Amino acid sequence: SKQQIGVIGMAVMGKNLALNIESRGYSVSIFNRTGERTKEVAAEHPDKKLVPTYTVEEFVASLEQPRKIMLMVKAGKATDLTIQSLLPHLDKGDILIDGGNTFFKDTIRRNEELADSGINFIGTGVSGGEEGALKGPSIMPGGQKEAYDLVAPIFEKIAAVAEEDGEPCVTYIGPNGAGHYVKMAHNGIEYGDMQLIAESYDIMSRLLGLSVDEMADIFKEWNTGELDSYLIEITADILTHKDEETGKPIVDVILDTAGNKGTGKWTSQSALDLGVPLPLITESVFARYISAMKDERVEASSKIKGVDVQNFTGDKKVFIEKIREALYFSKIMSYAQGFAQLRIASEEYGWDLQYGNIAKIFRAGCIIRAKFLQKITDAYDRNPELKNLLLDDYFNDVTQRYQQSVREVVAAAIQAGVPVPTFSSAIAYYDSYRSADLPANIIQAQRDYFGAHTFERKDKEGIFHHEWYVD
Ligand code: NBP
C-alpha cells in the first residue's frame, strides 16, 4: 500500500516533522540524499509507520496520488536540486511543499516554474525549531489554495494548538511566496524581540548592577504579565543555568558574539526595497553585526573612554518596572512596524494577507509566541484595514501610558553609556509616527538647493523650485 505523504531531508527538522506527521496517524515515506541517514532514522524508530526509501523513483512511487511531498532540505540550491530530481517522476496535480527557510522570491519563482508543468508548489514557513517540528510548529503555508486544501487536514493536525481557543496554528497565508514572506517577517520580529530582551538585561546589569539571579527572578515575574511569552520564559530559565566547569552563570561565560542565518537581514532588505520604515528590527540586525566585531570592540574599549558608569541612586524597584514598560512599549513598536511592512508587501505582491489570522497562528508553536499576539488579532478584528497597530485604541492607549518610561530608561542608559539601539529606535519611531511635521522640509530645501530636485508647498498644490543662487 502507498503512503499518504513523503518527507525529503532527514536532518533534524525533516525527521522531527516526519515523526510528528506519523504520530497523527499518517503513513510517511522518508528519503534523504545520503541514504545512510534514512536508514538510521528508520532504525531509530522501528515502531513507527516511517517507510524508508533509497532512490527518488522508489520514494515517489511509494506515495498516494496526488502526491504530497514535503521538502525539509537546506534552503537555496539544495532545494532547487531536490525539486529537479523529483520533477521527471511527478504527475500533474502533485503537491510539493517546501518547509525550509526559503527566501520568498525563490518561492515565487519556483511556484511559477512548477505551475507550467502542472505541479502545485506550497512554500511554507515552519517555526518552532526542532521541538516545534516534533511536537507542533506554527505553520505558514503559501501557494495554490486548492492544493493547500488537500494538505490542510494534515497541517491542522500537526500544528501547535493555541491555548486560548484550541485552534491549530496554521492558516492559508496567500499565493506563491506569501507563506515564506510571513515566516521571514516572523524571524525579523524574533530578532527584534531578542535584542530588546538583551538590552533590558544589559540595563539591569550595567546600570542597576543586578545579579544574574536577580534578573532571572525579574524575567520570571515579567512572564506572568503583559510580556508573557516564550522568549521571556526561556530568558528567565537561561539566567538560572550555571556553567558546569566554572560554576558561574552560563551567560557569563558565553561569548557576546551573535550569529545569524540571514532571515533578519532579508526582512530589513525587503523593508528597504518596499520603502517601509522598519528601524527596530533593522537595528537588531545591526546589533548582531556589531556584536560579531568582538576583537575590534575589545581594542576600541581600551582606546575610547566614553563615560564612567555612576552607581544608580534611584529606587531600583520603580526603575525595573519602567524597564518592563519600556520593553512592552518597544515590542509594540516592533510589531507595528513589522505588520505595516506585511501590509505594504501584501499590496505589492498581491497576497491579500489577513493580518489578524497571521497574529493568531503566532500564538503557539513558534519562537515569538506570546499572549500579546491576541491583542494584535483583536485589533485587526476591530478594523481589518488598520494602517498601523499604533492607531488601534488598545495599542494607542498602552503606548501613551508607557511612553514616559521609555523616555526615562533610554535617557538613563544613554547617560550611563549603555547602548540601547532598539529601545532608542522604538521611541524615535513613536515620535516620528505621531509627528504631523518632520524636518524633511530642510531635506527638500537641500535637495532643491544642490540638485534642483524641486519641492511641494504646505499652502498650495504644485511642484516648486526656489532660485537659491540669485546674487
Ligand atoms: P539543514 O538545513 O542542515 O539541511 C540538511 C538537509 O539538506 C539534509 O537532509 C541534507 O542531506 C540535505 N541536503 C543538502 Br545540505 N544539500 C542537498 C542537496 N544538494 N540535495 C539534496 N539534499 C540536500 O537541515 P535542518 O536544520 O533540518 O533544516 C531543514 C530546513 O528547515 C532548512 O531549510 C532550514 O532552514 C529550515 N528550518 C530549520 C529550523 C531549525 O530550527 N533548524 C527551523 C525552521 C526551519 P544530506 O544528509 O544528504 O546532506
UniProtKB/TrEMBL annotation:
The alphabetized UniProt keywords are: Gluconate utilization, NADP, Oxidoreductase, Pentose shunt
The name of this protein is 6-phosphogluconate dehydrogenase, decarboxylating
Which family does the entry's similarity section mention?
Belongs to the 6-phosphogluconate dehydrogenase family.
Task: Tell me which residues this entry annotates as catalytic.
Answer: 183 (proton acceptor), 190 (proton donor)
GO annotation terms (biological process): D-gluconate metabolic process; pentose-phosphate shunt
Query: Its function?
Result: Catalyzes the oxidative decarboxylation of 6-phosphogluconate to ribulose 5-phosphate and CO(2), with concomitant reduction of NADP to NADPH.
Associated pathway: Carbohydrate degradation; pentose phosphate pathway; D-ribulose 5-phosphate from D-glucose 6-phosphate (oxidative stage): step 3/3
- Annotated catalysed reactions: 6-phospho-D-gluconate + NADP(+) = D-ribulose 5-phosphate + CO2 + NADPH
6-phosphogluconate dehydrogenase C-terminal domain location is 179-469
What do we know about how this protein assembles, alone or with others? Answer: Homodimer.
**UniProt: substrate binding residues:** 101, 127-129, 186-187, 191, 261, 288, 447, 453
Residues bound to NADP(+): 9-14, 32-34, 73-75, 101
Q: Which domain of life is it from?
A: Bacteria
Q: State the PROSITE patterns in the record.
A: 6PGD
UniProt cross-references to InterPro entries, sorted A to Z: 6-PGluconate_DH-like_C_sf, 6PGD_dom2, 6PGDH_C, 6PGDH_Gnd/GntZ, 6PGDH_NADP-bd, 6PGdom_BS, NAD(P)-bd_dom_sf, Pgluconate_DH
Q: Which GO terms describe its molecular function?
A: NADP binding; phosphogluconate dehydrogenase (decarboxylating) activity
Give the E.C. number(s). Answer: 1.1.1.44
